[in-house]
Amino acid sequence: MRAIPAGLLDLRSDADIDFDLLHPQPLTSVKNIWFFWHSGYINMHPYTQRNVRAWHRRFTKQGWTIRIVDRQPGSKSNIVEFLDVTDPTLFPRAFADETLTGPYALQHTSDLVCWPLLLRYGGVYADVGMMQIGDLDTLWHKTIANPDSPYEVLSYTPSGEDHYSLCNYFLAALPNNALFARCHRLLLALWAADGGKTSTDGMYASPLLQGVPLMGGEFTITEEDGTFIGPTEVSRLLTDYIIQGQVASAVMGLVDAEDDWNGPAYCVAHFYAIEFMEGSQLINELTAWNGQEAFDLLSLSMPKEGEQESGEQQKAREIVEACLSRSYGFKLAHGLILRVNKVTLGSLWRDNPGSDIVPGTYAGWLRHGIAHWNQNGVPGCVKLSLLPPTKVGRLLA
Predict the structure, then answer these.
(1) How far is residue 39's CA from residue 181's CA, in Å, rounded to a whole number?
(2) 123-146 in b/e burial notation, b at 16+ Cβ within 10 A?
(3) Name one GO molecular function term (predicted).
(4) Total H helices, total E strands in the chain
(5) Looking at residue 218, what is its pLDDT?
(6) Residues in contact with 129: Cβ distance below 8 Å, sequence separation at least 6, in sequence order
(7) Is the entire prediction scored with pTM above 0.90?
(8) 350 domain residue, yes or no
């Protein structure tokens, strides 16, 4: 780890940074970091605003522009300022009409914005819950922006799986990426089924996704009223919830000779895959996905000079040190996972405003480290094996 020189950081006040975020500069390069919040940056939860500000502080002086796209009428960041939402090759009818339904409609609205923005403008698309720790600019210039590099896509991936996958909370590519273009065509086809869908319910069963294992494994849900939902149904729910990721896996595993597309070969050659558990979920791994424990540990005050470190303080310190030195980022989890785990670090930071930035706590230290320190290198790339295709045939057949 090393301190970032002050000249490479935007150290102005939060108010000054918020002004810039609310008044984005014209598009002049591919170095854009895209976020989405339906009601706009000003209405984001404070802890996610701090996430986005940290991206701004870290990367704007290296030529990046942070953009929080929204759907607010009259907003300079409304998606209509960047893309034609009535174009059926870009968005499904439900998006144009703003008729998406279901408990996760806003998450799926974000999913539908992601690939069209990257295909048109390039850059990075990240979830507002994503805390960037590692050196984005260096990795970008070593891979995607380097004409001598074979890598065209950056994301996270679970290691040891029997099929290809990526994590849709962090995606990066240049415009017109071949993988993302096919992914978005397939995603639009799922939304167009049955005359046009307004939610992702049941998309897991689409024949267009044949051969891709459902997500979820052995997760179960016990609802507040005691209703138990077993692993099979949870896998279906989770796959519908992360349908964008399921689509990506389908395209990554597809061989379509008529389209000159070999997904497995593309992934091996062109996907810079960061291992997702250490790379973006380390706090969860170190606390066994116990959101309350993670929150309690990071809320502890650090020992004052002369005080002996307690066992809990030691664990909290080790978590922060591990994240800052080993993780490329950390994804604060929300959404469907709250039905499984009930609380997460992200949900508790949301429900306890300001708890993520209390001076003298481990959470405050983590925030400071993310904004002011950098790692000495970039994360390694998971070595992907050439796997058999999950489907041989046409993308939309």
Answers:
(1) 27
(2) bbbbbbbbbbbbbbbebbeebbbe
(3) glycosyltransferase activity
(4) 16, 15
(5) 84
(6) 48, 51, 169, 331, 332, 333, 334, 346
(7) yes
(8) yes
pLDDT digits (tens, 9 = 90+) for 185-227: 999 999 999 999 999 999 999 999 999 999 987 889 999 899 9
> Which element (helix H / strand E) includes 154?
strand 153-157
Say if 338 falls within a structural domain.
yes
Query: What's the confidence (pLDDT) of residue 343?
Result: 96
* Number of structural domains in the chain: 2
* Three-state SS at 336: coil
Q: Count of CB atoms within 10 A of residue 352's CB?
A: 13
The crossing angle, in degrees rounded to 10, of helices 243-252 and 178-192 is 130
What are the structure tokens assigned to 232, written together?
Answer: 């099979």
In a domain, 43, yes or no: yes
Sign of the CA dihedral running 317, 299, 156, 172: negative
Residue 2 forms beta bridges with which residues? 374
243 with 173, same domain: the answer is yes
Supply the pLDDT for residue 279.
97
Q: How far apart are CA 201 and CA 249, in angstroms?
A: 18
Q: Write the single-letter amino acid at 272.
A: Y
In degrees, rounded to 5, the angle at the alpha carbon of residue 365 between the alpha carbons of residues 363 and 370 is: 95
The CA–CA distances, whole Å, from 112 to 125, 185, 243, 268, 392 equal: 12, 11, 11, 26, 26
Is 204:243 a contact under the CB 8 Å cutoff?
A: yes
Residues of the chain with pLDDT under 70: 160
* Domain boundaries, position 271: 2-278
CB burial of 93-105 (b: ≥16 within 10 Å; e: otherwise) equals ebbeeeebeeebb
- Please answer whether residues 163 and 212 qualify as being in contact, where contact means their C-beta atoms are separated by less than 8 angstroms: yes
Q: 16, 58, 13: which is closest to 33 by C-alpha?
A: 58
Structure tokens at 316: 């909290």
Q: Of 245, 262, 278, which marks where a domain is finished?
A: 278
